[in-house]
C-alpha cells in the first residue's frame, strides 16, 4: 500500500474550502467532539513528527481539520456533501395499540384534547380555545426552553378519526391523527396513532435542536404507548362510564 506523501496531503487540504464567512453546518455536540479529538491528534502528531514524519504530518493535518470544525462549527467536507447537522430532524411517531374500552368512549376521551396531558408527560397542558382550536404547552427535557403553540382540528369523523395540526407560524410545527376501529372481539378499540413534530429551520431551529436529539422523541413514543395502561386506570374508566378492571 502506497503511503501518501506530504505533497499529496497538502494538495488535498488545498482543495477544501476553509472560509468561515458562513453559517455553521455541524451541531454543538459534534463541535465539542471535534475539538477534543483534534487536540488529542495534534498532541500525538507533534510527538511523531521526528520519529515518523509521514504519520506525524497526517495526524497533524487531521487535527487541524478537527480543530477547525470545533472552533468555527464549519466542516468543509460536509459542505462539499451538502450535509448540515445543525438542522434538527423531524420527529415522526407511528404506533398501533389496542385498549380494553369501547370505541365511542376512547374517541370521546381523545377528542377532548385537554385529556392528553393525563397520560402524555411531554405535554404540560392543552387548553381549549374553541371547538376546533386549542393551546398546547410542552414539557421539554429539563424545561430549559418554553415551548407552546396553537393547534386546530383539521379533520374529524365522529367516533372514527381526529386530525390536528399547529397554526401557521407556530414555534414548532406539530401535527397528529388518530384512527379508531372496533377490534375483532367487538369490545376493544384499535388505535392507529401518528404524531409529528417539525422544528423550524434557521437560527430558531438550531436553538431548539437539543430537544430533537432522541430524548424528546423517546418521551413522546413512551407517552403514546402509555395510553394502553392509562385506559385501564380508574380515571379513564370513570370518564368513559366503565367499571374498573379487576
Short note summarizing the structure:
This protein has 246 residues and is of the alpha+beta class.
Give the secondary structure arrangement, pairings included.
Layout: H1 6-14, H2 28-48, H3 53-72, H4 76-81, E1 91-99, H5 103-111, E2 123-128, E3 133-138, E4 147-157, E5 161-166, E6 173-182, E7 189-198, H6 202-207, H7 215-230, H8 234-239
Antiparallel strand pairs: 1-7, 2-3, 3-4, 4-5, 5-6, 6-7
Helix pairs in contact: 1-3, 2-3
Shape: elongated
SSE string, helices as H and strands as E:
HHHHEHEEEEEEHHH
Low-confidence runs (pLDDT<50, min 5 residues)?
201-207
Average pLDDT confidence is 76
Approximately how much helix is present in the residues? 25-40%
Structural class: alpha+beta
> How many domain units?
2
Q: Record the strand order, biggest sheet.
A: 1-7-6-5-4-3-2
CATH class wording of the largest domain: Alpha Beta
- Specify Rg, calculated over alpha carbons: 26 Å
**Total beta-strand segments:** 7
Strand portion, in percent? Answer: 15-25%
Q: Main sheet? A: 7 strands, antiparallel
Report the total helices: 8
Notes on the structure:
With 246 residues, the chain is an alpha+beta fold. It has 2 domains: 6-81, no CATH class; 91-239, Alpha-D-Glucose-1,6-Bisphosphate, Chain A, domain 4. Helix content is 38%, strand content 24%. Strand 2 and strand 3 (133-138) form a beta hairpin. It is elongated, with a radius of gyration of 26 Å. The termini are far apart.
Amino acid at each position: 500500500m502506497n503511503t501518501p506523501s506530504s505533497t499529496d496531503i497538502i494538495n488535498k487540504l488545498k482543495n477544501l474550502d476553509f472560509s468561515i464567512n458562513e453559517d455553521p453546518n455541524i451541531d454543538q455536540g459534534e463541535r465539542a467532539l471535534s475539538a477534543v479529538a483534534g487536540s488529542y491528534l495534534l498532541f500525538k502528531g507533534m510527538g511523531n513528527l521526528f520519529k515518523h514524519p509521514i504519520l506525524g504530518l497526517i495526524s497533524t493535518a487531521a487535527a487541524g481539520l478537527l480543530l477547525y470544525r470545533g472552533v468555527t462549527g464549519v466542516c468543509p467536507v460536509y459542505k462539499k456533501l451538502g450535509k448540515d447537522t445543525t438542522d434538527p430532524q423531524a420527529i415522526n411517531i407511528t404506533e398501533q395499540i389496542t385498549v380494553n374500552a369501547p370505541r365511542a368512549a376512547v374517541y370521546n376521551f381523545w377528542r377532548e384534547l385537554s385529556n392528553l396531558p393525563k397520560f402524555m408527560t411531554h405535554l404540560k397542558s392543552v387548553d381549549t380555545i374553541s371547538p376546533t382550536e386549542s393551546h398546547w404547552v410542552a414539557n421539554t427535557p429539563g424545561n430549559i426552553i418554553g415551548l407552546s403553540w396553537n393547534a386546530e382540528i383539521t379533520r374529524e369523523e365522529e367516533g372514527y378519526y381526529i386530525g390536528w395540526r399547529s397554526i401557521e407560524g407556530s414555534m414548532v410545527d406539530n401535527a397528529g391523527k388518530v384512527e379508531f376501529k372496533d377490534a375483532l372481539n367487538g369490545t376493544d378499540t384499535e388505535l392507529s396513532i401518528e404524531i409529528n413534530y417539525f422544528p423550524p429551520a434557521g437560527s430558531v431551529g438550531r436553538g431548539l435542536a437539543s430537544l430533537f436529539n432522541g430524548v424528546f422523541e423517546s418521551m413522546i413514543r413512551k407517552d403514546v404507548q402509555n395510553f394502553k395502561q392509562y385506559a385501564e386506570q380508574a380515571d379513564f374508566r370513570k370518564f368513559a362510564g366503565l367499571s374498573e378492571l379487576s
